[in-house]
Specification:
Layout (H helix, E strand, L loop, with lengths): L9 H9 L5 H8 L3 H12 L14 H12 L9 E5 L6 H8 L8 E6 L8 H4 L6 E6 L4 H10 L6 E6 L18 E2 L2 E6 L6 H8 L3 E2 L5 E5 L13 E6 L18 E6 L5 H9 L10 E6 L9 H19 L1
Parallel strand pairs: 1-2, 2-3, 3-4, 4-6, 5-7, 6-8, 8-9, 9-10, 10-11
Helix pairs in contact: 1-3, 2-3, 9-10
């Protein structure tokens, strides 16, 4: 039996070529080596094209070039798993519509950031039954348009990343629940740059189309008041900012919590220390992992001793419960 050349094993080739993914020029060179290399290199090259970069994009030329490549070689569309658009740069709607109209057969994630009205042609991307994740940053007060987007979303979506940076406004309260389908989510990330008195409106009206009763992973800002089901959540991520005013966080609504992650973008606030010191372990019988993410620029100024003491106290409390 003839032994296969190791460099022709698809798994090994995929791993090696995948390590070059940050360099499009090298991937392009790999695609010219042989047919076996071409398929794998093209898969990594087109898997997650960065279509926009509002900080340096000055024309539609790169996007038109991508559109030309995909229309002349439609077989490349099957490689695209993730696609994102930022509609606050120089990207014209006409160019975006050309790309959105293509048939992406294996698209798993769609991301859109917009300060404009949501283009109806964009919704075409959200109808794919292959779609699993939607990342959406909405800077516009037109929440009726947002509800129209939800109406057309694929029922296969399981993960939602939703950012809202402006007030919902009273006009959203005229929307009627029950107008759209129910989409069962497994994970949800909420980034809410709105006033506290608008949280209820956002969570109940904007998320009305989604069934959150089976939510397993949740990422929110520390101190955010929840008006949504959380009893099934097993993974909780809390983002702690510089101006957070919450005294502590109550974990009683997360009885099935197993993993807690705390992301610090500032020095350790007293609210976090109070939370770790006073958390009732009886309400967290399944918690087994605590992860604290710290920005590198904070490493030298961080009050490590206080954090270590708080984590130790929390760990001892859990150990006594589980012991």
């Amino acid at each position: 039996m003839q032994r296969q050349n190791p460099i022709e094993l698809n798994e090994l080739l995929d791993h090696c070529i995948g390590s070059l993914a940050p360099s499009p020029s090298i991937l392009t060179s790999c695609a010219l080596v042989s047919r076996s290399w071409a398929e794998i290199a093209q898969s990594h090259l087109f898997r997650a094209p960065h279509l926009t970069n509002p900080h340096c994009l000055t024309s539609d030329a790169p996007l038109l070039e991508l559109y030309t490549i995909l229309t002349e070689s439609p077989r490349l569309l099957r490689h695209i798993r993730y696609i994102s658009f930022t509609m606050d740069g120089e990207l014209s709607l006409a160019t975006a519509e050309k790309i959105w109209s293509l048939e992406f057969t294996n698209l798993k994630t769609v991301a859109l950031s917009t300060i404009k009205l949501i283009p109806s042609v964009f919704i075409h991307l959200l109808e794919s039954l292959h779609l699993r994740r939607l990342e959406f940053a909405h800077h516009n007060r037109d929440f009726a348009s947002l509800m129209h987007v939800w109406e057309r979303c694929s029922p296969a979506i399981r993960h939602l990343d939703l950012c809202c940076y402006r007030g919902v406004g009273a006009e959203s309260t005229v929307l009627e629940k029950g107008l759209v389908q129910r989409i069962t989510l497994k994970s949800l990330r909420l980034e809410l740059g709105i006033e506290d008195d608008e949280l209820f409106i956002l969570q109940t009206w904007t998320l009305a189309p989604f069934d959150l009763s089976h939510l397993k992973a949740l990422s929110i800002k520390f101190g955010t008041t929840l008006f949504l089901p959380s009893h099934e959540v097993e993974i909780l991520e809390l983002d702690v900012g510089r101006n957070d005013e919450a005294e502590s966080y109550d974990f009683s609504s997360f009885p099935n919590l197993r993993i807690l992650r705390i992301n610090l973008s500032t020095d350790i606030p007293d609210s976090i220390l109070n939370t770790l010191r006073t958390a009732n372990s009886a309400s967290l019988p399944h918690l087994h992992t605590i992860v604290v993410g710290i920005s590198g620029i904070l490493a030298d100024s961080m009050d490590w001793q206080s954090l270590d003491w708080a984590l130790s106290a929390f760990s001892r409390s859990l150990a006594m419960l589980n012991g």
